[in-house]
Design brief:
The chain has 466 residues and is α/β, with parallel strands linked by helices. It is built from 19 helices and 13 strands.
Length: 466
Amino acid sequence: MAEVHVVMLPWSAFGHMIPFLQLSIALAKVGIRVTYVSTPRNIQRLPQIPASLKDLVKYVELPLEAVEGLPNGAEATIDLSMEKIQYLKIAYDLLQKPFKELVLALSPDWIITDLIADWTVDISQEISIPLISFSVFNAATCCFIGPPEYLVGEGQKKLRGTPESMTSSPEWLCFKSPVAYRAFEAAGSHQGVYGKNVSGRSDAERVAKILQGCHLCCIRSCMEYEGEYIDLFAKLSNKTVIPVGVLPPEHDEKKERTDEKWHEVSKWLDEQDPKSVVFVGFGSEYKFMKEQIFKIAFGLELSELPFLWALRKLEWAVEDSDALPSGFRERTHAKGIVSYGWAPQLEILAHTAVGGSLFHSGWGSIIETLQHGHTLVILPFIVDQPLNARMLAAKGLAIEVERREDGSFTREGIAKALRQAMVEEEGEKIRACTRKAVTIFGDQKLHQEHYIGKLADYLKDSSANK
């Protein structure tokens, strides 16, 4: 059988590019050739392809055109404030022509696209190469957003015309579901999904076109976690839906880091009791206000638990020391470490001293945390994070920090959730559930051999039958 070749095109956000790369590597392990397309600076910031797979996975750079409103050098959402991301979509849409030329030159068997590049539907139809939609969000989120007929037009106006419509389970869900936004989350989410931006169309319009025009839908999830939502999404989308597994990242224990800062962190972790440390990490997509960071800091201090906080650069903090309350480091130096900038999250979560995580409940971080059986304390802010949070709490896998009606939280709420999750008796049931979750999220064989194997068989069989 001839070698199957797929071209990957993720949206320019690391929460999308990393899962696309993980899927690329997983497919390469079963003999499928992958061309991974992104912009030059994004590719420079992505991990290197494993040496054993370099013949099967290739990076291809497509430069972004300069666009008014988009800062020079900004090629991913991490480089931008929320209001500037719409200009990145304009630049991203201008990749249509060079991407089409690349696909014509490569003549792959499949194109695998994300939720923003709706113009890949046109390319797919024009040159007769089938299109696959790959969702880096889980099936519960996909079901909540809904089928194409409710994403645009009269269907959207009727059932999703207001932010309030996103605060309850939609009528197309045929079973009871906890997945919905709270009022303080809904306004921004409604605008983000259904509001037109400077690119000329809404994200909902883009998603609807891709769902209608793709040959197959793939989802980063598994039946063991949310089988009923995967089955429902197949009905809602009227497409074949293949879960690809959760793509749990592999931790290379033999990998040595020469970074001096990581050496200090690793040494400190080695000195802590097993399962005693809370890892705190919120990534870089959400831009924190000073008040929020300070409340998290005071909450950690109040909890009196050992912690390791990976704190990314904050725009309002001129110096690293400005990012934390006065005297915080001095008061907590015996209990915790604040690591400024990037931190090796996979290595940290794999350390035996770590027992819990305080984070935003993004799907990728949920997977990375549950594969080690850590207790989850969640503080969601944007996009799918609130929906994931509701699902986790309903499944008994997480404790969500209490919020006021305006979405604010307190230092006391942070401390209460942390202590309940890590040490108090009432949190034991949740700790037991997260330990059990390792059998799903930490099972590399299940996700690689069963789920990726099933997708690979589909790709190979369909290509052979063209």
